[in-house]
Amino acid sequence: MPATYDAIVVGLGIMGSATAAELAGQGNRVLALEARWPLHRCGASADESRILRLSHPDYPCYASDAGAALDAWRDLEATVGTKLFQPTGGLLVSRASSSALSAAAAAAAAADTAHKLLTTAELRMRYPWLRFRQADEGFLDLGAGILLADRCLTAYQQAAVAAGAELRFGAELDLREITRSWLENHEIPVSGTKVNGRHLVLAIGAWLGSAPAPLRWPEVWIERTVSHWFSPGLQVPGIGVENSPFVEWIDDQLELCMIPTINGRVKVKTHHTGQEADPAAGPAPPTAAEEAFVRSSLKELSGLDLPPLGAAASMYTNTADRSLQVRRHPTILDLTTIAACSGHGFKFAPLVAARAAQLCTTVPAQTSQAPTVQQHAL
Fold first, then answer.
1. pLDDT single digits (tens) 187-210
2. Model-level pTM?
3. CATH of the domain at 329
4. 308: closest CA among 318, 317, 299?
5. What tens digit of pLDDT does each residue of 287-334 get?
6. The CATH number of the domain where 262 resides is what?
7. Strand partners, 169
8. Residue 342 · residue 316 · CB < 8 Å
């Protein structure tokens, strides 16, 4: 007879790991499955760093969520005894006439988020290791910082195990077979055996885009993104997390982000390339032309000409309006899908997990109508 669990979580990136920990912490019997290995580099949770902003001009409703998420990361940090969040501040640089600066300031003021507006002269005085153009001005999100992503992922997996969850890596998973078996018997096949559950959570990131139709909900599109790493060289002072914020430059044609030195590397990337990726094949590898473009853009914007150390391509899962979404399926009421990786997702993992756990442990009304979509605010 198949083993029975209160919840089966498929996918152990940051969303699945956090959800497994949350469910197990509430006393549920949880099985969490991952087709790959811990800290694998195929999805969107890998890497040493993710930024955490408190000001969100494009999504003002995220402001209160960002503060709550940071509190949750602090709590997890205290529980596992490992540093997970590095305060740095977050600096947005753009031309004085840019709408990006005014939007950031307005969002911060509306949310009562601590911030500063910096003139060109103030930028140059505060950050002498960076070059600023004459028309550059800045918005400094004082409470922002960097999540140490690999540590965060490991911390949630450790918390899940400590709470009694069973984590299986390298599991043989077939989404088509999972679909058929779950709809027929509330079972899913795993590496030649079957397990039974009361609720299924799909936290499969980019692979949601290639899941069979009943599971592929909400509709998503998968985007290729590339991270580049550079040597900090002999900059004085060094571009480290102790003295430098993460910096985003926004102009009409470019959005470039630099994360200061972690593990001896400066990370630089552009956001939302618009290039689609196929989860089955994986994203196209980085090219020399992309590396040269990012290096020259960084030099033009900051004055830093840093030697390249490497690059890696990964995949973002995007919803139509780029919102975070945690949904119970409209017709498969014991299925919850997480689609929360549109460039915002990682930092909100604690809140996504709490919402997903709530959906797993409440009994929905039997209705043919789709439930209210939980999007933007969590």
1. 999 988 899 999 999 999 888 877
2. 0.92
3. 3.50.50.60
4. 299
5. 999 999 999 999 999 999 999 999 999 888 888 777 788 989 888 889
6. 3.30.9.10
7. 34
8. yes
